Amino acid sequence: MKKYLIIALLCLAVILALLQADKKSAVEIAGKMLLVDVARTDAEKSKGLSGKDKLNENEGMLFVFEEAGRYPFWMKDMKFPIDIIWLMPAESGDNSLLTAVYIERNAKPESYPNTFNPKVDSKYVLEVVSGLSEKNNLKIGDTIFVEY
Asked: Rounded to whole angstroms, how far apart are CA atoms 65 and 114?
């Protein structure tokens, strides 16, 4: 019996470690739930979605910055176009409720080495499949819910 308890605890520890390492979060945008990878470190931010062959409509990547600023993005090593959405915490200060402050639609891989530069400060950036923001009529000022 003790042997099974130890095995169960080890399995639970492995599962928790895998979930933590997975760095996935949920984002609700225009009434749709997306499962997003979260980029927090400089290395994760630099790599972004490069190397992926495609992005499904229910996927994306959320970039989290320590401070608000004007963060430019590029399409280095990208294989598909995306929409890039710069976000700030809503007026409530709640970091799970974000407001779209700038949107770049249909950023194409062939635009590299050019960068896409927001005209306002942001603290988060969300990359989603190209066309998602237009299809869902996402506009500056819209609220996005993030669970990370």
From this structure: 21
Domain assignment of residue 33, given as a range = 23-147
| Structure confidence by residue, pLDDT tens digits, 49-78 | 998 999 999 999 999 999 999 999 999 999
Q: Which residue has the tokens 């009529």?
A: 137
Look up the CATH number of the domain holding residue 32. 2.60.120.1140
Q: Which long-range contacts (CB under 8 A, 24 or more apart) does 6-14 make?
A: none
The pTM of the full predicted model, rounded to 2 decimals, is 0.83
> Long-range contacts made by residues 104-110, C-beta under 8 angstroms, separation at least 24?
104/73, 105/130, 105/131, 105/133, 105/134, 106/81, 106/82, 106/130, 106/131, 107/73, 107/75, 107/81, 107/82, 107/83, 108/75, 108/81, 109/75, 109/78, 109/79, 109/80, 109/81, 110/75
Q: Angle CA(47)–CA(48)–CA(51) in degrees, nearest 5?
A: 70
Q: Does a structural domain hold residue 16?
A: no
